């Protein structure tokens, strides 16, 4: 943590890049009515996840995304189908808007892994969460920006399983916290490369997860609107 603070203070002497939606998540700025496609690979203890998402700038400083992915669970030797969506709202803070904070809400549905080891058991997990993300952007070169960001939040998950006959085997609910740290590199305000670490809070036995996200912004270009 001390090293992170030293790096941030050093970067404070660099020129600021423009702040727009997605800066709070360490990704390329998202001007009005534009889209950003992202692909993410994440490694955690006992699982591997890959997914894609599409982010869209909404009216009134809001933005949302929908995504689909799959998680390979080593314990079951099977994969799940992961669906998710989130909604965020952009707030610029500081005298000159040097940083950006975004309240976020998300929901997810994981289907599987099913029929592990021929058991016929079908599993599903429904999740919902709220959090707060914050970030800023530093222009390193005319076409290169560094976008450090972090997020904290709380989530709730409901795990369910049914036998092949449709009989409920269990329903387990859990509430948990998490912290995420991102260091995004943005090229030409279009291409984002963002390594991340996610740290579980209040869950014994869970290790941190490492992720890499690559995003690309596209869509109609607009003149600056002050966002």
Structural class: mainly beta
**Overall radius of gyration:** 19 Å
Give the proportion of residues in helices.
under 10%
Unreliable stretches (pLDDT < 50, length at least 5) are 1-16, 222-227
| Mean pLDDT figure | 86
How would you describe what is shown here?
This protein has 227 residues and is mostly beta strands. It has a single domain (16-219), classed as Autotransporter beta-domain (Lipocalin), CATH 2.40.128.130. Helix content is 4%, strand content 63%. The protein contains one helix and 13 strands. The protein has one helix at 2-11; strands at 15-16, 34-44, 47-57, 62-73, 78-89, 91-93, 99-111, 122-135, 138-141, 144-162, 168-187, 191-201, 209-219. The protein has a ten-stranded antiparallel β-barrel. Strand 3 (47-57) and strand 4 form a beta hairpin. The longest helix is centred in the N-terminal third of the chain and has 10 residues, at 2-11. It is elongated, with a radius of gyration of 19 Å. It starts with a helix and ends in an 8-residue tail after the last strand.
Features:
about 230 residues; mainly beta; Lipocalin; ten-stranded antiparallel barrel; 13 strands; about 65% strand
What is this structure's SSE topology?
Blueprint: H1 2-11, E1 15-16, E2 34-44, E3 47-57, E4 62-73, E5 78-89, E6 91-93, E7 99-111, E8 122-135, E9 138-141, E10 144-162, E11 168-187, E12 191-201, E13 209-219
Antiparallel strand pairs: 1-9, 2-3, 2-13, 3-4, 4-5, 5-7, 6-7, 7-8, 8-10, 9-10, 10-11, 11-12, 12-13
